[in-house]
Fold CRISPR-associated protein Cas2.
Amino acid sequence: MIVMTLEAVPPSLRGELSRWLIEVQPGVYVGNTTALVRDLLWDKVVQYARTGRCTQLYRASNEQGFAIRLHGDPRRTLVNLDGFQLVAVRNARHAELQGEYDPPEDDDKL
């Protein structure tokens, strides 16, 4: 089973995706496809999303039971923590804290 969400993408891409999956709410698609079709759909979405945002969740044989793919939203990134995929959301506070925890780039300062 796969779940895909699309935001701010061209209507033609949404129509193409509805050929393979069911749109249960605007921009939310659910279906059961093979791994090959799932990967091809993801490639098509990434190729035609332009400035839109896309997410794909699908069944995987790992601790969580699923895997996540993200595209187009620079505020959200995937973080692998001991085999678990987590979504990190960057906000203004993240930018402040990042400067405090980043190691110095120049090794001579150590």
